[in-house]
Amino acid sequence: MAKILLVDDEVQFLELLKFELTSEGFEVFTACNEEEFRMRAFSEKPDLIILDIMLGDKNGPLVYDELLAEGLLDRSVPVIFLSALVQDRPPIPVTAGRNYALHGKPFESEKLIQAIRSLIKAA
Fold this sequence. Notes:
Number of strands: 7
Helix content: 25-40%
Mean pLDDT: 85
Number of helices: 4
Strand order of the largest sheet: 2-1-3-6-7
Shape: globular
Distance between the termini: 14 Å
CATH topology: Rossmann fold
Low-confidence stretches: 90-96
Strand content: 15-25%
Structural class: alpha/beta
Order of helices and strands: EHEHEEEHEEH
Oligomer: single chain
CATH superfamily: Response regulator
């Protein structure tokens, strides 16, 4: 069973997505701020991270890069960035050796689950 870490500052969104992904057979952990993200990333060793681009007053990808630099995350762990400000497309620039996807909010659950399975399989 793949472990997924959901990181978003909207608690209701986290709970809804956690329910959906759990019903698809994933083991799901949540974090709603930078501190919880750091703690869960280190303690749970996720197989995939779903990360909101705007994490409260923080920049989600920037926090992600800090965790990589500090050695709290494995670079091979794929990430799906979520944003209410974009259409579904890969982030630019894509860093070599990392698996990324970008999904807009709201999103189609089937597309997100397909992206999760695809990224986990590729990792």
